[in-house]
């Protein structure tokens, strides 16, 4: 190979190396930007907690109870960032959207956030303060339906519904989404667990109290499991 022929080759090699370094730098910059955004979010959440407990007479009785809402919120936001809805025909997108909305309404209903109305001509709305994430709690009772807005639950259920929508756009994910849909709502089975505990213990108030006391931690663990399973792309495990 002559010297003239070797120069372009070396040039291409240098260009490739430069491009690789540029992509690496951009990737590092993106990682730093993401880390910075999460750090800002965590600082804002910490400031909200400090302000609430510093400016009110509320006290921290259970740390897990106070932190659980932010686990839901942050996990839900993380999942929304990680998962993109894949392109799909319009008919499939509409069907997946209808299923996701139905799933969201089921979650609200079985957890008691959505219920029947007053049946009368008048309704009412009430706003109550609570620890950040738990509150502000907005309660609405109308003629046709009633609704209780608990911020972290609403954000968590919206995130799960979006994940189900994204996964249903892939035909191979339908079975997984259905299974996770049942597993993700611990409140669906919580009443059954409570009945079993009551039957075994003869309705012991101590046993029932222990189950209720752990309900926040158990529901948070179930939520994290559901998010983790729905974030994973089922196509990685092959088609069946």
From TrEMBL:
The alphabetized UniProt keywords are: Membrane, Transmembrane, Transmembrane helix
Q: Which InterPro entries match?
A: DUF7546
Q: Where are the transmembrane segments?
A: 35-55, 61-81, 93-117, 137-160, 172-198, 210-232
Q: What is this protein called?
A: ABC transporter ATP-binding protein
Species = Halobaculum roseum
Lineage of origin: Archaea, Methanobacteriati, Methanobacteriota, Stenosarchaea group, Halobacteria
